[in-house]
């Protein structure tokens, strides 16, 4: 089953809310844990245990594990394996992108099921040129994985690059979305090549109608709301997984409170479908 098909099925069954598993130092302290590998492990696996059986997709942010070196990455490997075992899709948030030969190594690391970090999908950056992502595209096709390509990110600095005009007059973001349209052409029910479009973006005029999954980070702690998802995505809202990390994680360590936060977000977002 392709990633696009798994994404559609997971959102229909479990709801459109994606939980970011980002073990910030401040959150470890709020949970009464030390900011060390043992604290990271307790935090991350506790979040997995609480939310992975419930939500359609989890999105671990690799940076928060990498900061502990190889032992942190070992925890990330367990987050991937245990989340998938609990039935959640795993989107590895690493925003990789490099020249093609290096992109191939990244693609193998995150999209080959034989890799310890092999995930359902990975976030990638197209700002070395969309064609530099070809190894990710080919590897995703080979293993039925998915990509989420940065298009209109949730941070306030993004427009400097993403709203800039290309040689043909369209914005960089529009060009990226055009590439995604081409990659997903004819896919059914949805292609596997998604876009990252923040829940915080203002009026951009971008055409967000395309036949692929959309990740909307910035929901919750960064200020994005259900109304923003409705306003930004309109008729494409049914393809959106809205993602939040800190908002859910702050409800912990109580499992019930984190699960309630997931259920509430899913209920609110389901109204848009
Ligand atoms: O445009 C983007 C792309 C990715 N992110 C990532 O999402 C989470 C947001 O965390 P919150 O605590 O919900 O703010 C984090 O991992 C970012 O790296 C994003 O925010 N915006």
Automatic annotation (TrEMBL):
UniProt-listed Gene3D superfamilies: Aldolase class I (3.20.20.70)
EC number(s) recorded for this UniProt protein: 4.1.1.23
Residues annotated as domain Orotidine 5'-phosphate decarboxylase: 16-261
Keyword Phosphoprotein: no
Catalytic reaction list: orotidine 5'-phosphate + H(+) = UMP + CO2
Active-site residues per Swiss-Prot or TrEMBL entry: 95 (proton donor)
Example of a GO MF term: orotidine-5'-phosphate decarboxylase activity
Cross-referenced SMART domains: OMPdecase
A matching Pfam family: OMPdecase
Keyword Membrane recorded: no
Pathway: Pyrimidine metabolism; UMP biosynthesis via de novo pathway; UMP from orotate: step 2/2
Keywords on record: Decarboxylase, Lyase, Pyrimidine biosynthesis
UniProt-listed NCBIfam families: pyrF_sub2 (TIGR02127)
HAMAP family for the chain: OMPdecase_type2
Family, per entry: Belongs to the OMP decarboxylase family. Type 2 subfamily.
Protein name per UniProt: Orotidine 5'-phosphate decarboxylase
Species whose genome carries this gene: Nocardioides plantarum
Organism phylogeny: Bacteria, Bacillati, Actinomycetota, Actinomycetes, Propionibacteriales
Protein encoded by which gene: pyrF
């Amino acid at each position: 089953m392709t990633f696009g098909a798994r994404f559609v099925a997971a959102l229909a069954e479990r709801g459109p809310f994606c939980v970011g598993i980002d073990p910030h130092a401040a959150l470890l302290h709020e949970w009464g844990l030390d900011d060390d590998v043992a604290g990271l492990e307790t935090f991350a696996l506790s979040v997995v245990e609480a939310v992975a059986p419930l939500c359609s997709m989890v999105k671990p942010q690799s940076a928060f594990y990498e900061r502990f070196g190889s032992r942190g990455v070992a925890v990330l490997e367990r987050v991937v394996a245990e989340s998938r075992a609990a039935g959640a899709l795993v989107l590895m948030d690493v925003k990789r992108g490099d020249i093609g030969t290096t992109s191939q190594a990244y693609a193998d690391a995150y999209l080959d099921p034989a890799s310890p970090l092999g995930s359902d999908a990975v976030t990638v950056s197209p700002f070395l040129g969309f064609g530099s992502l070809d190894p990710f595209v080919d590897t995703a096709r080979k293993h039925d994985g998915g990509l989420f390509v940065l298009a209109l990110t949730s941070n306030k600095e993004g427009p400097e690059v993403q709203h800039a005009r290309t040689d043909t007059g369209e914005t960089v973001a529009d060009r990226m979305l055009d590439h995604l349209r081409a990659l997903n052409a004819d896919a059914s029910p949805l292609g596997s090549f998604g876009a990252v479009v923040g829940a915080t973006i203002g009026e951009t005029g971008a055409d967000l109608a395309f036949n692929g999954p959309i990740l909307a980070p910035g929901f919750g702690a960064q200020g994005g709301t259900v109304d923003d998802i409705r306003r930004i995505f309109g008729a494409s809202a049914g393809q959106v997984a809205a993602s939040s990390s800190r908002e859910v994680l702050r409800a912990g360590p109580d499992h019930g409170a984190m699960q309630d936060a997931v259920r509430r977000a899913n209920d609110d977002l389901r109204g848009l479908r």
